[in-house]
Amino acid sequence: MNKQDRSVIARRFRGYLPVIIDIETAGFNPAKNAILEIAAVITAMDENGDLVPTDTHACHIRPFEGSILDPAALSFNKIDPFHPFRIDHEEKEALQKIFQPIRTAVRDQGCTRAILVGHNPAFDIGFLNAAVERSGVKKNPFHPFSTFDTATLAGLVYGQTVLAKAALAAGMEWDNVQAHSAVYDAEQTSRLFCAIVNLWRSLSCDQRGLPAGNSGP
């Protein structure tokens, strides 16, 4: 990616690099329930100025000591944290594994920070921030509270807020068997987010991908 491309994506999102995150958990309380899976999809702009998903990074996470595993949550996401063939990592190691390529992408694309993109992202960033604080991970690449919400964006553009229905409304395929795995949901969310951004560009933006009237520095 050349210097001009890096400056465009940095200006397009005010210095932020959109990274799609999906987190599967053992409940709804970030302080008590464990993260079981995390997936991150990094975005970039292609030679046509369209936003596209690039690399996916994912990790299974071992429940932290003293965490509560809600049977209802495990039944919903179909995750067995103690399956003998499950290759997982301690929470701190998993976060470091996910954060490293994101930090590299932020630097390489001329951005200052990553911004979390999620479907109802308050859930994901709440769990992510709690895990960062609990494990003592340094250099969190994400803004601590700003996010992009594909549920809101899809509601505006397609009239649908449920991820599966929004994906179908956007012309994407949806597989209920794969749904609720962190990788599948993150990758589908990334396609939905990029489709909305690119649709907006085709309707009202200049050829560099910037909103009309926003020439940037």
Strand pairing plus helix content: what structural class? alpha/beta
Percent strand: 15-25%
Silhouette: globular
The mean pLDDT is: 92
Q: Which percent bin holds the helix content? A: 40-55%
Sheet with most strands: strand arrangement: 4-3-2-1-5-6
User: Total helix count?
Assistant: 7
What string gives the helices and strands in order?
A: HEEEHEHEHEHHH
Q: How many whole angstroms does the radius of gyration measure?
A: 17 Å
Low-confidence stretches: none
Sheet bearing the most strands, described? 6 strands, mixed
Please count the beta strands (DSSP E, at least 2 residues each). 6
Oligomer classification:
single chain
Alpha carbon gap, first and last residue? 20 Å
Q: Care to describe what's here?
A:
- With 217 residues, the chain is of the alpha/beta class.
- The protein is 41% helix and 22% strand.
- It has seven helices and six strands; from the N terminus they run αβββαβαβαβααα.
- It has a six-stranded mixed beta sheet, sandwiched between helices.
- α4 (121-135) links the parallel β5 and β6.
Kindly list the characteristics that best describe this protein.
alpha/beta; 6 strands; 7 helices; 22% strand; 217 residues; single chain
